[in-house]
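pls ignore typos typing on phone
S-adenosylmethionine + seq
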Amino acid sequence: MVKEQYINNDYLEKYRGKNLPLLDEILEVRAKQARLLDSDANLVNISDLNALPDLKSNHAIFGNDVVEIGKRDELSDEDFEKLNETLLNLKPWRKGPWNYFGIDIDTEWRSNLKWDRFFNGVKPDFEGKRILDIGCNNLYYMYRTLAYNPELVVGFDPIARYYFHHLLNRKFVQDPRIQFELFGVEQAGLFKDFFDYAFFMGILYHRRDPLGSLKNVYDSLKRGGTIIMECSGIPGDDPLCLFPEGRYCQAPGYWFLPTWKSIENMLYRTGFTEIETFYKEPLTFDEQRKTSWIDTHSLEHFLDPEDISKTVEGYPAPVRIYTKAVKPLQRNKKIYD
Ligand SMILES: C[S@@+](CC[C@H](N)C(=O)[O-])C[C@H]1O[C@@H](n2cnc3c(N)ncnc32)[C@H](O)[C@@H]1O
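k done
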């Protein structure tokens, strides 16, 4: 049922034709990706969601640091307990903060800091725009955009749990502008020349093929559209990347960790213009830390306790680099020829 609902979602039909010439391919990929919903963990999520009431809350705040959905007195004690259990089963809560019907979710990341940085650095105009959030995780940034009245906000994430975050929110805020696809950056190019803004945050260093990924983001943007990028990288001004031998910050999925200058060069050689790095600072314990909403370790275990300028593996500790760039109105022939 959940799978059929996901596959049959028709929000893209109104764009069929000139706007989305590859819509049939998108729908084919969606039908394949739906297999990600077949797992035992999902059965727990589905029964949790079915137990909750369908209740359109009158209380939703998207313009503050905390995304607030619902008020305590809108739920019976019994439904409040069920909601609490559902939220706990959706752990780890990485991006936030959120508040559901009075339950504060102090997420691992204070993502409002990232939001403020890119919002101040880019000064985006989201009104009436189409936004793509690649690797949207639990949809925190997507809900924040609703305060600015966009036309459509599509989140891509190939992890099924985040689809259940989406369905949870849908129980209480039925806003058709927020949509979710079980896609990765690999699929972004199927939405050719479609989006005004693409968020590409926390992804590039997790990709084995960073340039191929940037090309996919580029293809998804309209001419004049903006990529808003945030990337874990290394300090320094030379155009270099660190390529760890194995783990970095204890995680296996780090490949190329660039300096700000490397990111700018990658964007330039992908064809972007108006490239600007507007923030580059070390990641701090104030922004990423262990809370009761995750059961795993956090930044304090990833850095060398004797010298926090290094990871536990002895590499330079991560710097967070924020960059914006625009897909030019005309193809830059120098780059592609
Ligand atoms: C480090 S988190 C970043 C989350 C969020 N964009 C942010 O900046 O806070 C990486 C996210 O990318 C998602 N992801 C995994 N594979 C992906 C892929 N192939 N393409 C895009 N995102 C992917 C993960 O599930 C996760 O939610």
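The mean pLDDT is 95. The longest helix spans residues 77-89. more later
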